[in-house]
Amino acid sequence: MDISFLGGPRPQRGVGVIAPFDFALDRELWRWVPDEVSLHLTRTPFVPVEVSLDLARLVSEHETLGDGVRTLTAIAPEVVAYACTSGSFVGGIAGERAMCEAMTRAGAIPAVTTSGALLEALAELGVRRVALVTPYTVSVTRALEEYVAEAGVAVTGCAFMGLTRHIWKVPYRDVADMARRAVGRRADALFISCTNLPTYDVIPQLEAELRIPVLSANQVTMWAALRRLGTRAVGPYQALIDPAARIDPATPSGPVLPDVPDVPEQEQQ
What we know:
The chain is α/β, with parallel strands linked by helices. Helix content is 37%, strand content 15%.
């Protein structure tokens, strides 16, 4: 059979992704990516440490990030994303910027991180007050609160799960329950932290219910990386990537829910 008419494959554009060694949600990242873009993932070396501030520091060392970039340069991605929230906020805003600079030096290409992408997304949506959901322990969660506050964004509520492993196994219903706990009337948006926490399908449901933009770690990472390519992330009814999904300024914003205090430190799945 003559198949010469097929020609070659379509030209592809590449996004390199450096993820922590325990990252398990490759398929979720791909769901935000348009057909003409490919993801090229690499992981940091294994370390026998549970999810904690110590692990966040270990997986975000500049030498580790530089090695990750160098493993990707042979396939010539146009941007590299460090897909780890805690690893990119543990050093504050100055630390996040230094990570981007280290990655850029290693590969001479633009670099983004999850936590840097979060601040970029909050600015894009004009968010000044945000509620947070995390799967982390109290110490890691507090570090995220400090990072957001350093950027001048007020944290209006926070709920956390206290997990130190197997975060990718958390079901959507638990993510949604934590979101409802965290969000009160004052929040302009909700951020669901951790690239290892599943969020793709829960985002449009929560936006419809809570009537505020809902951001997640993987969502903002892909949005920011693809933005560097001059293209857009894809996904149904997500305010960050679809302006049509944003609440009309004339419509009262915020969910019709009472304010809820933080979840106790030891709340688990």
